[in-house]
Amino acid sequence: MKTPLKVKLGELPLSINGELASGSKGNIQTLELMRRVARENRDHPLVRDVSIQIINHAGTLDHHFLTEAKVIGEWVKDKVKYVRDPAGVEQLQDPKLMLREIAENGVAFGDCDDISLLIATMLLSIGAMPYFRAVKYRRRFGPFNHVYVVLYDRNFLGKKERLVLDGIIKHKPIGFEMPHKYGEEYPAF
Whole-model pTM above 0.85? Predict the structure, then answer.
């Protein structure tokens, strides 16, 4: 989906780095940091403006909240290329940085937590209440392997639905959830 971005670029942080525990405890600390960053950035004009531009460009109808979320998820999936963090380092990119990279270069790079943080922050900026879903693929014990966004909202008919927004699965549409052994959800709001 091509969306022309009109953004005002200023001094933005490059990334958020910090000391984290290893294993599952480090996963939880990362999720807590993601929640804090999403909440801090949800009312930033850049985040809200880009989110509204995407919704407007897609032509979504009023009160079609899940459709709005879906077009934001598809846009992020299209604009962010998956790249792993350096070995042994957990980096978390500021959502504003990723939007700046997209505006300047047409693409940003990040791993699953960066992509999920961007999606959740954009959803928060339009009044949605997303969750981060951390999953384990191989077994129930040990650290989480992946994180993505899940949204529970009502469609235009009033029926509550669940929408999975996983921006790294490029060959499937937003809404697809990869089978896994175990998962937990953490509110981003």
Answer: yes
